[in-house]
Amino acid sequence: MTGMVWKPDVTVAAIAERDGRFLFVEERASGRVVLNQPAGHLEDGETFLDAVVRETLEETAWGFQPQAIVGIYMWRPEHLNRTFLRVAFCGDLLAHDPERVLDRGILRTRWLLRDELLGPRARLRSPLVLQCVDDYLAGTRYPLSLISHLISQPASLAASG
Fold first, then answer.
1. CB-CB neighbours of 91 under 10 Å
2. Number of alpha carbons in the 13 Å side-chain half-sphere of residue 79
3. How many C-beta neighbours within 10 Å does residue 77 have?
4. Distance from C-alpha of 67 to C-alpha of 144, rounded to nearest angstrom
């Protein structure tokens, strides 16, 4: 691997809980129907907070207000030559737009108990799905200030500062 640049897929995920049930999406991925948190890739020029708000809206039609970071996870599936770096946020759901068309590949949203994620029928997209829920239930929370977003300035301003 000497000389190669390693680039993990950076993703965000939203953990939203109401009355012991968690918001999930049922989606089609790699030819399978799986469960996942509302989640997706960080886009160029986007902050982590903007990404998790956008992904939650696109995949569930719910507004999302991040309150804390639940965890930062790295996962490398055996069957893929890729590594995923996930930042999971918990937060509050805001307005819901039932008329909004969901992202391509999203079949529907589901509210599930933690125990409904267990067993062979659960079809989790990755082990990160259950790990995020378990960390949330364990009370793991980090302040949003853990993440800093530095914005590049034009060279003329940076040189004078």
1. 21
2. 2
3. 11
4. 7
Amino acid residing at 139: G
| pTM of the predicted model over 0.85 | yes
The HSE-up count of residue 42 (CA atoms within 13 Å, CB side) is 18
**Residue 18 token pair:** 């109401």
Q: Where are the beta strands (DSSP E) in 7-58?
A: 9-15, 17-18, 21-29, 32-36, 39-41
Rg (CA), the chain: 17
Residues 77-112 pLDDT 10s = 887 788 999 999 999 999 999 999 999 999 999 999
| Residues in Cβ contact with 25 at an 8 Å cutoff, skipping those fewer than 6 apart | 35, 36, 37, 38, 59, 60, 102, 106, 107, 108, 109, 110
Per-residue burial over 125-143, b = 16 or more CB atoms within 10 Å of its CB, e = otherwise? bbebbebbbebbeeeeeee
